[in-house]
Amino acid sequence: MFQRILALIIIVFFISRVFWQKRKKQIQVIVFVFWLVFWALAGILVLFLKQIDKFVSYLGFSASGIDILLYLGIAILFYFIFRLRLKLAKIEKDITVIVRNIALKDEK
Amino acid sequence: MGTLGHKKVIVIIPAYNEEEKIAAVIKEVKPNVDEVVLVDDGSDDRTVELAQKQEVIVLRHLFNRGQGAALETGNQYALKQGADIIVHFDADGQFLAGEIKNIIKPIENGEAEVVLGSRFMGKKSNIPWLKKNIIFPLARKVNRLMGINLTDPQSGFRAFSRRVNEQLRIEQDGSAHCSEILNKIFYYKFTVKEISITVIYKDFGQSFFRGKGRGMGGIRIVKDLILAKLIN
Question: Do A96 and B227 touch (CB under 8 A)?
Answer without folding.
Answer: no
